[in-house]
Amino acid sequence: MSLEIWQGDITSLKVDAIVNAANRELRGGGGVDGAIHRAAGPKLDPACQALGGCETGEAKITPGFDLPAKYVIHTVGPIYSGSHSDPLLLAACYRNSLRVAQENGLHSVAFSAISTGVYGYPLGAASKIAFTEVRKWLRDHKDYDLRVIMVAYDARTYALYQKLLG
Ligand code: APR
Q1: What's the CA gap between 144 and 166, in Å, rounded?
Q2: How much distance in Å is there from the Cα of 9 to the middle of ligand 1?
């Protein structure tokens, strides 16, 4: 198993699954969600609609269609409000996405920085939660071969990820 960081457009990655920062309706949107829907092509939207939405903190999977990635795992981050549930729900996004990856026998997963764009989660706090939760999952599943790539779209996020990777 490994934990890596990478800077760039997540839609270019040839991995088993990329993790989308979706909304509860799985309707597609702006940010990384829009980029993934554009790159996956028109079949992704009906596949998402067939899933019947997704609760905050949960994760669901579709094929990747025209993407280099085989699958897209759609997770819905919390809209940042400063409440006690924010960190719990954000951690659940990472945990449930990894559970879905394992359930589907996937061995490489790339995460976008869930909730840190439109949903307004402060980047420093969100990144810490992301790394803590992924590391915990990898520790708890030592016998499962999994490569996790934390994708930073911009330089600021990448610098933070470098610090957190140590
Ligand atoms: N590749 C990787 N990361 C990207 C890309 C990309 N092509 N485009 C944007 N990002 C990064 C942003 O820089 C941000 O750090 O994804 C992170 C998450 O930002 P958003 O996409 O805004 O996701 P989020 O904050 O979780 O808000 C979700 O936005 O697009 C809508 O439908 C989506 O309603 C949902 C909401």
Answers
A1: 23
A2: 11
With a 6 A CB cut-off, is 77 part of the ligand 1 pocket?
A: yes
Of all protein residues, the one whose alpha carbon is nearest to atom 26 of ligand 1 is 115
Residues annotated as part of the active site: 33
DSSP character at residue 53: -
Distance CA 14, CA 67 (A): 8
Summarize pLDDT for 72-117 with one digit per residue, the tens.
999 999 999 999 999 999 999 999 999 999 999 999 999 999 999 9
Closest residue CA from atom 18 of ligand 1: 117
Closest CA to 55 of 25, 32, 80, 29: 25
Q: How far is the CA of 143 from the centre of ligand 1 (A)?
A: 31
The pLDDT, as a whole number, for residue 9 is 98
143 contacts 102 by C-beta, under 8 angstroms = no
Whole-model pTM over 0.85 = yes
Question: In sequence order, what are the residues at sequence separation of 6 or more whose Cβ sits closer than 8 angstroms to the Cβ of residue 101?
Answer: 16, 17, 73, 109, 146
